[in-house]
Amino acid sequence: MKITFISLNSDPSIPEPIPAVKKIPEWYKSIPRYIGGEKKPNPDSGQTYGTIKTCMPVLDAMTAGYLILSSADLFISEKQTETYYSWSAHDLISFHHKNQITGYPKSENKSKDENIPKFTNPWIVQTPKNYSCLFVTPFHHDLPFRILEGVVDTDTYLNAVNFPFIPDPDFEGLIPKGTPIAQVIPFKRESWSMSIESLQDSIELQRQFLHVKGNILTEFFDKYKRHYWAKKEYR
Fold first, then answer.
1. Nearest alpha carbon to residue 67 among 120, 17, 141
2. What are the backbone angles phi and psi of residue 169, rounded to the nearest 5°?
3. CB 211 within 8 A of CB 227
4. Residue 110 · residue 82 · CB < 8 Å
């Protein structure tokens, strides 16, 4: 499948979207895969203590889809009870009226008069028929803001999706150009139904469960990755 990012601005200095796998957070790169840095069982417990770096679900979330990057530097500063935003170029942010998200969790700013900032997205996202996109704050990145997550039917909505955001109330400083501001994850629209079952009532489910538990309990390293993980690819 193919996702297309269509530029709304001819300025070549604007960073292009990238596959999320190309911008792994520095904190993740710097930590060891195993506590103590050694891939060997603990002599006391017999268990191997992998760090979060061995957790494939975390990696899959972090590298899913694509990243839209900030097109210019943004500086956030506090003066008395108000937040001030300064940006170096482009129409980087605009604002929503504060009353539009009254009651939204963690949306109360220091001043009741403050409106809600919004990153202006210089890219239209287009997907094939029957595919939509989930727009979220980039997973597992250390960012001083949270965008308001949303799903957009990008196969029919040929328009830019902008990103209202709630800044960290304790943050003051620079958000550099090129910072990931949104993670874009395409998915196929399908209808789902829900069921609830008991493990005790199904011999087949018990068999599958015990098989998984057997692998988990009898091997030291990378059990989920070897037996159950499927590679995902976004280029």
1. 17
2. -65, -20
3. no
4. yes
pLDDT at 110 > cutoff 60 = no
Evaluate whether 186 touches 131 at the Cβ level (below 8 Å). Answer: yes
pLDDT at 35: 81
For residue 77, the cross-strand partners are: 84
Domain definitions of the chain by residue range: 4-18+66-188, 26-61+195-227
CB atoms within 10 A of CB 113: 9
What is the H or E stretch that residue 29 is in? helix 26-30
In CATH, what number does 4-18+66-188 get? 2.70.40
Query: Is the pTM above the cut of 0.70?
Result: yes
CA 175 – CA 169 distance, rounded (Å): 14
The region of weakest confidence among 52-61, 181-190, 222-231 is 222-231
177 compared with 106, residue with greater pLDDT = 177
For 81, the token pair is 């009870």
- pLDDT, mean over the chain: 90
Q: Which amino acid is at 19?
A: P
pLDDT cut 90: percent of the chain above it: 69
Which has the closest alpha carbon to 120: 144, 96, 94, 156?
Answer: 94
Which helix H or strand E contains 30, and what residues bound it?
A: helix 26-30
Using DSSP, state whether 88 is helix, strand or coil.
coil
Bridge partners (DSSP) of residue 183 are 67, 136
Distance of CA 98 to the CA centre of its chain: 25
Other residues' Cβ atoms within 10 Å of the Cβ of residue 85: 14
Q: Which residue has the tokens 């976004």?
A: 234
